[in-house]
Amino acid sequence: MASAAATAPAATASSRPSRWTRLPVISQLRQSVGLQRGMLVAGLVLTGIFLLTALLAPMLAPYGFSQLRDEDGSFGSLQEPSSAHLLGTTVGGYDVLSRLIWGSRTALLVIIVAVAASILVGVTLGLISGYFGGWLDRVLVVIADAIYAFPSLLLAIVLAIVISGGQSSMWGGILAAALSITVIFIPQYLRVTRAEVIRIKSEAFVESARVIGASHARIMIRHVLRNSTRTMPLILTLNASEAILTLAGLGFLGFGIEPTAAAEWGYDLNKAVSDVTSGIWWTSVFPGMAIVLVVLGLTLVGESLNDLSDPRLRKRAAGAEPVEDLGVDLGDDAPVAPGAPAGAPEPAAPAAAKEASA
Asked: Over the stretch 220-262, which tens digit does the pLDDT of each residue have?
């Protein structure tokens, strides 16, 4: 009897998935089946190629993004694809392949700065707005609605002009584009976080934390925040694709980065418009294809994660494993049920469990 009782917890612990398999993307990949898995894998492959290209740009690019000549002489303008220039050269004499590879690094930097700043500001404001409510909540919601009223690309153009101050340096252009995109994304994170916080702050485990005397800061960070950001990976991937399109739109309209400062796909497309009518296809096809493939990869990942996180959209194969994570993290301050082992939280209320597993 004693040996059986001792082995029971060990068997339960061994059957529980590891922390690595419970990560957002990994857990959804294990749950996906059929077409959903194919979409998610395709999106991850395209996104992985984009990330590797951006990180390894100095080793992959045959030339610099603003290089016009090598030891053999000048590259020449509008040279067709050849062994020396696999994707040809642009009207300015730049190597298309090198501009393509270095442009992925510019896009990645803009995504990192824009999404990180948006999450930091938007989630913080949404947490404060949803938790405390009152007049502060109403003011923040009105400001978010006012930002939504402006066309996103027009707002990005105005902010890019104001932030950059006419400068076209690499970091000046990247920060101008990233910060202008940040202003567009902040209301999205604010609204999503606020809605989740309003729902979670009335749960039983939050009320229990208040009863035992936990401070507002501890409740907000340890209980509310960690349970209200479960949809962030979905919004992050979709916003990353939108950031690529906004950056390309700014560059195409002439508000991007100069070619001597950094490579940017939208700017290259702008300079290739006149080449299309002359039958010169390589200067526009490859930058446009890069934008489409990166946006497609990020969108496939975001849409797949969205389908798998929504029980109403998730289609599971017969005999699939049940979902173990109910989506509620009780934190460290949750009370312990009588007779339960140390560290075990009190079972959630039936209504809360039903809502979480629905």
From this structure: 777 777 777 666 777 788 788 888 888 888 888 877 677 777 8
Q: Which residues contact 143 (CB under 8 A, 6 or more apart)?
A: 187
In degrees and rounded to multiples of 5, residue 74 shows phi and psi of -70, 145
Quick one: DSSP state of residue 150? S
The answer for residues whose C-beta is within 8 angstroms of residue 232's C-beta and 6 or more apart is 119, 123, 189
Number of residues written out for the chain? 358
Q: Which residues contact 144 (CB under 8 A, 6 or more apart)?
A: 186, 187, 190, 191
For residue 196, is pLDDT > 80?
yes
Rounded Cα gap, residues 289 and 162, in angstroms: 30
According to the model, what pLDDT value does residue 23 have?
Answer: 60
Class of domain 39-69+80-312: mainly alpha
Which residues, at least 6 apart from 267, have a Cβ–Cβ distance to it below 8 Å?
Answer: 251, 252, 256, 257, 258, 259
Calpha distance 16→35 (Å, rounded): 27
Ordered by start, the domain boundaries in the chain are 39-69+80-312
Q: How far apart are CA 258 and CA 267, in angstroms?
A: 8
63 contact partners, CB below 8 Å, separation of at least 6: 70, 95, 98
